Amino acid sequence: MKVVAGNWKMHMGPDEASAFFSRFTPDALGDSVRVVVFPPAVSLRTARAAAPKGVEIGVQNIHPEPSGAFTGETSAEMARSAGASLVLVGHSERRHVFGETDEETAGKVRAGLRAGLIPVVCVGETLDQRRAGKLETVLRRQVEAVRAPLGDAPSFMIAYEPVWAIGTGETATPEDAAEAHALVREALGDLGGAPILYGGSVKPGNAGELMASPGVDGVLVGGASLDPESFLRIAEAA
Ligand code: PGA
């Protein structure tokens, strides 16, 4: 079964989330695809209530602590009670815009598991790292940082998202994706049975060939997940 996940980033407040789901009606998808949407925290409850049956909801980010004096933050437990069943951890924007470290990423994986959320851990290299021949080193380091907590997880997913392909219109070739997915799977070792998704400028026009690539178990879609028709076409491509 392929996974098609949409990361709405800082788009789609509650009103827009419910409008999205009034137009996202995936009745023909059946059992071949698992659809997940990651709305902003403020829209979780609305999205959970409005999403069609079978569509799973996840939170984009959590704080490692369950509660406390952390103004502006959302805990895993709160996200869960608002309707999330998955959590996105280590997205490249968290790592590169907000400066999150591998250690913080591991802490958020632990927090998500504590609350019963399924972690979706994002990994991926920058263009400079790729050009310097560090693809394997970077992926290994990012996977190694979360291997211990993931070892205790009832289930989890990894999303390989080359930073140079996120929001740029530049997509990895199916061969690039297959190579990186194999490296991630190798780094996971005995945990390598988990689904590994590809992310980075996935669109209706390229989703099918990416998902047909060896070892690509689904896609994590940013921009193209904001439009119900295009997200539906991507889900159909699975
Ligand atoms: P994009 O984003 O599809 O807009 O490139 C992917 C992501 O950041 O998860």
Write the SSE topology.
Layout: E1 2-7, H1 14-23, E2 33-38, H2 44-50, E3 56-59, H3 76-81, E4 86-89, H4 92-96, H5 102-114, E5 118-123, H6 127-131, H7 135-151, E6 157-160, H8 174-188, E7 196-199, H9 204-211, E8 218-221, H10 228-237
Parallel strand pairs: 1-2, 1-8, 2-3, 3-4, 4-5, 5-6, 6-7, 7-8
Helix pairs in contact: 1-2, 5-7, 7-8, 9-10
Question: What does this protein look like?
Answer:
- This protein has helices at residues 14-23, 44-50, 76-81, 92-96, 102-114, 127-131, 135-151, 174-188, 204-211, 228-237; strands at 2-7, 33-38, 56-59, 86-89, 118-123, 157-160, 196-199, 218-221.
- Strand 7, helix 9 and strand 8 (218-221) form a beta-alpha-beta unit.
- The chain is built from ten helices and eight strands.
- It has an eight-stranded parallel barrel with strand order 1-2-3-4-5-6-7-8, surrounded by six helices.
- The mean pLDDT is 96.
- Helix content is 40%, strand content 16%.
- With 238 residues, it is of the alpha/beta class.
Q: Please state the second-level CATH architecture.
A: Alpha-Beta Barrel
Question: Structural class, please?
Answer: alpha/beta
- Count of domains: 1
Question: What's the number of extended β-strand segments?
Answer: 8
Beta fraction: 15-25%
The poorly predicted ranges are none
CATH topology (level 3) name: TIM Barrel
Broad CATH class:
Alpha Beta
CATH superfamily: Aldolase class I
- The side-by-side strand order for the widest beta sheet comes to 1-2-3-4-5-6-7-8
**Total of DSSP H or I helical runs spanning 4+ residues:** 10
Bound molecules: 2-phosphoglycolic acid
Integer average pLDDT: 96
Helix content: 40-55%
Main beta-sheet annotation: 8 strands, parallel, barrel
Oligomer description: single chain
Overall geometric form? globular
Termini Cα gap: 8 Å
